[in-house]
Request: fold
Amino acid sequence: MRAVFFLLAGLLLGGAAPTILITDLSQGQIDINTTFKGADLLVFGAIQYPQGAVPEAPPDIAIVVRGPVQPVTVRRKERVAGIWINTDSVRFESVPGFYAVATTRPIDELADDRVTAIYEIGVANLQLSPATGASDAETEAFEQGLIAAKRSAGLFVESPEAVTVTRNVLYRARIAIPAAVPVGDYVAEIHLIRKGRVVASSTTPIVIGKSGFERWVYVAAQKHSLAYGMAAVAAALLAGWIASLVTRRA
Amino acid sequence: MDIYLPIAEMSVNALVIILLGGGVGFLSGMFGVGGGFLTTPLLIFYGIPPAVAVASSATQITGASVSGALAYWRRGQVDVKMGGVLVAGGVMGAGVGQIIFRALQKLGQIDVAINVIYVVFLGVIGGLMLKEALTTLIALKRDGDRAPARLRRHVPWIAALPGKMRFYKSGLYISPLAPLLLGALVGVLTVIMGVGGGFIMVPAMIYLLGMSASAVVGTSLFQIIFVTGAVTLLHATSSKSVDIVLALLLLAGGVAGAQFGVRAAQKLRPEKLRLALALIVLAVAVRLLIGLTLQPAALFTLYGPQ
Reply:
């Protein structure tokens, strides 16, 4: 609703300003509670053209949702004495815990490599900052391994043609947030691309956090770990004792 | 019924976890073992991070051992003095095990290490149990229903240890160093494998220490409660990987399963039970060994900040 309002306001006011992207989200805060099985985030909004001059050609939109950056160590398994054990490792300093990109067309058709690299559009364009003395080919192999692992966990997602544009003005896309998503501060970045150049961008923050019981347990385990441990032992003892009362009666 | 585990940070099917606990509980009740050696690998097969599986399994064992320990306590079959020595050793061993656990985590070898240790221990113990069960079964076939008389073994180096003490309920006059060392070894395993260690403790008490059979199981359960409790505290404060929701789900299933297991066991002959247990233990070992030797689907694994 808000987007439509802004859109109408924008159309009415017109103005000589550059093209502006207006964005809203179905939820600015995603709560992880006991029944959390993942979430469906709807990213939607409108393109506000200068003087309300809606072009004939459909615009290209790239919607990126990314999670907090953290260091990740990638280890490679090799066969040693018949069993597969971890051997070499490469540390990547800035790996987003979650990265999803939805676009109107396949990424290589949107813009050239330089532009997609600058805006980090596409999993291959993420700047993961490998910290290693290994050769480029080695680092590349580890980077591919990292991306494959993140993809199979549903934490790196590319969805070409997942952005719907209506009347060349309204855009929307659904981003699936999996249950295994890390908590933290997220951001939704929307880029409007025309003739291979980014002409407008917007960013909107999202917070993903544990709530209620999950949060309470997590905070207790992190901040008051000794008390949490004692509570866990007490709960286990109590459960065992109740069971023994029940079985004695039976 | 999906439920989000706050520490494992993943959504699991609660029914699957309860059934898993129930299945292991059934075997526990049937064979009189804790079942931790099955819980941890099964949780890892299900996709729970190994560190969380090990830590939460220890918590679950604390609860699962209570009813058994109380039953033996009422019958006066717990040697508290012996149990105290074993617990003291166990807590020391747990401390050492924790250092090893952290070091392996830093090296990124904890997953492989847990699997290898499991294969070795389950393989050796399953093999020994299988041999013992088969020998007994063959002997029974030959001599009718009379089980072969077992001689109490006297281990010379244990008898030679200094500072002997009397343990009345165990019927022993030995140095506390022997049970202290035994407790320490089991403590290390509790931390790294998430097991109570009864499957090592009980035979060691009988064959190495020569304890009187009536006090063995009760005392073993007594020490398991304290050592797994201490291990829960260690994991909770150090690796922060105890998932209380996971542990309680496992307990709920385990407690119910154990009752059915006890009833089922009364209909079967003990030699056949031991044979079945040996085969289960070996099957888990073989499954883990295959997992280690086959080329994994993904050669690269990710490790977060530690």
